Amino acid sequence: MAYYFDTPSRTFSEYLLVPGYSSADCIPANVSLETPLVKFKKGEEPELKMNIPLVSAVMQAVSDDKMAVALSKEGGVSFIFGSQTIENQAAMVARVKAHKAGFVVSDSNLTPEHTLNDILDLKEKTGHSTVAITDNGTATGKLLGIVASRDYRVSRMDGSEKVKTFMTPIEKIVSAPKDVTLKEANNIIWDNKLNSLPVLDEKGNLVHMVFRKDYDSHKQNPLELHDKLKRYVVGAGINTRDYEERIPALIEAGVDVLCIDSSEGYSEWQAKTIKWVRDTYGETVKIGAGNVVDREGFRFLAQAGADFIKIGIGGGSICITREQKGIGRGQATSVIDVAKARDEYFEETGVYIPICSDGGIVYDHHITLALAMGSDFVMLGRYFSRFDESPTNKVNINGSYMKEYWGEGSARARNWQRYDLGGDKKLSFEEGVDSYVPYAGSLKDNVNMTLAKVRSTMCNCGALTIPELQEKAKLTVVSSTSIVEGGAHDVLLKDNRNL
Ligand code: IMP
User: Fold this and answer.
1) Residue 197 shares a structural domain with residue 274
2) Burial 147-172 (b: 16+ CB within 10 A, else e)
3) Sign of CA dihedral 241, 243, 249, 255
4) Is the peptide bond preceding residue 239 cis, with omega within 30 degrees of 0?
């Protein structure tokens, strides 16, 4: 006879934290959000830790090299999407590792033959006002000029006017050679009162841009996550098909941690993939696995040797797996169950395997709930897709700015490997949708605000660290009536609040 779970499966919105005693030193400034990323033995330190408990989802619409740099600056890790060619994915990883703080690859580039309208379109898409003008319109072409806002007046010029007529030409541009240090670049910027400084190779090809605002912000990232060589930390998603080719390329590019990206991780394919990694690299290569939603799934991947285990089926914002296939489990119940299994495994073996709640974070407080329920960190897709740094287009829909966001199981992403059960190499039906999410600005501002809330709630629970929160948290299920009471109610709102 089929097995029936005793209790219904619940989501985060059905829970609240009940405050505990907070001492006078329990203030947000004293909270540490440090958390392990990979497994470790009792009494030892994990080889990889994060300074904040956030990772960005293995998705085309979320995690590329730009997102990875922005998140590592704040102390978290991005898993660069694997639903692209091995070469492209490895190149993204390599760009993160080559990224010198303050030196950026120009993301706004055109040729002298483009027009003012092209400049304005690009500015709308990227949100950046400095455009490099190169011979081939790429970030590495020969630099011929720069267009900044001061170079044109929309009200006085025709949109069809060619860039070459109003750009600041190369002869008038102060540039720096490619071996310039950030300190030297910054001095040049200040001495010449510049907003941006192009860095060129000996042939005059553009290598990087240094922006005055980036140099200033670099000094404001106390939680930046570095490897031993002071490079940003980056992860990458892999699948259970082409790992024998993909993993060596990612390692060569400098990846710090891998994650098998699959909608359902309790499978022989994942065990085989982890075994191949262990046989080939021993414990030196770190690999997470998932997704699972119960004790059995956790134990299977733990025994297979996973370095961390991801939880969640069907809770993602773009996910229609539950609708399409009728599989899944409420995210809160899944986390609680897997956290128990993780603690039990730790008792038995002395090995602590971090767990990650993946998908379904709607409000910032869901992050705190996931941590309190035992998650060591959380993976978010929709959350990060709304920021400037996500790889997707910013579009104006009926007067509001939106970013595009689509699931890996949508026809748009065509990531058949994620849903692969060893059958045909194609996506037979969709498990995700293509959508818009409200544009929300910079990653830094949003992450800072979100984590301010997390720290504050932790203090209400009398906890200064994540393990302390997990030990002290008191959680209650709320009734459907009290959920209504949780938001503003019985008042007429004057404007939309930004939650
Ligand atoms: P979100 O943070 O709620 O948007 O959920 C993101 C998570 O949804 C990802 O990390 C994946 O685990 C999952 N996911 C991504 N694409 C799809 C899809 O197309 N169908 C189902 N789940 C998906």
Assistant:
1) no
2) beeebbeeeeeeeeeebeeebeebee
3) positive
4) no
Q: Is 74 in the pocket of ligand 1 (CB under 6 A)?
A: no
Distance 245 CA to ligand 1 centre (A): 25
156 located within any domain: yes
Q: How far is CA 171 from the centre of its chain?
A: 40
Distance CA 407, CA 415 (A): 9
Do 146 and 55 reside in the same domain of the chain?
no
Is residue 252 in some structural domain? Answer: yes
Instruction: Look at residues 184, 217, 250 and tell me which one is the last residue of a structural domain.
Output: 217
The Cβ of residue 382 has, within 10 Å, a number of other Cβ atoms equal to 21
DSSP letter (8 states) at residue 18: P
Cβ burial 247-260 (10 Å sphere, 16+ → b, else e)? bebbbebbbbbbbb
Q: pLDDT tens, 57-95?
A: 999 999 999 999 999 999 999 999 999 999 999 999 999
Q: What is the pLDDT of residue 425?
A: 60
Alpha helices in 139-285 (DSSP H): 163-166, 182-191, 212-218, 243-253, 268-281
* Ligand 1 lined by 328 (C-beta under 6 Å): no
CATH of the domain at 443: 3.20.20.70
Distance 319 CA to ligand 1 centre (A): 6
- Strand (E) or helix (H) holding 146: strand 143-147
Domain span at residue 178 reads 109-217
Nearest-angstrom CA–CA distance, 83 and 89? 8
Residue 497 clears pLDDT 90, i.e. is over it: no
Indicate if 270 and 213 belong to the same structural domain. no
Q: Give the number of other CB atoms < 10 A from CB of residue 391.
A: 18
**494 within some domain:** no
Phi, psi for residue 38 in degrees, rounded to 5: -130, 165
Q: Is the CB of 409 under 6 A from ligand 1?
A: yes
The CA distance from 267 to 265, in Å, is 5
- Tell me which residue of 360, 362, 331, 358 sits closest to 438, measured CA to CA: 362
What is the model's pLDDT at position 420?
67
Tell me what the mean pLDDT of segment 288-299 comes to.
97
Which tokens in the block code for residue 221? 């990232």
Whether 254 and 131 map to the same domain: the answer is no
Return mean pLDDT, the chain: 93
141 in a structural domain? yes
Residue 496 — very low, low, confident or very high, per pLDDT cuts 50/70/90? low
Write out the catalytic residue numbers: 319, 418
Centre of ligand 1 from the C-alpha of residue 317, in Å: 7
Asked if residue 319 has its Cβ within 6 Å of ligand 1, the reply is: yes
User: Please, is 318 exposed, middle or buried when counting C-beta atoms within 10 Å of its C-beta (0-12, 13-18, 19+)?
Assistant: buried
Q: Is 4 helix (H, G, I), strand (E, B) or coil?
A: coil
Counting the structural domains of the chain, the total is 2
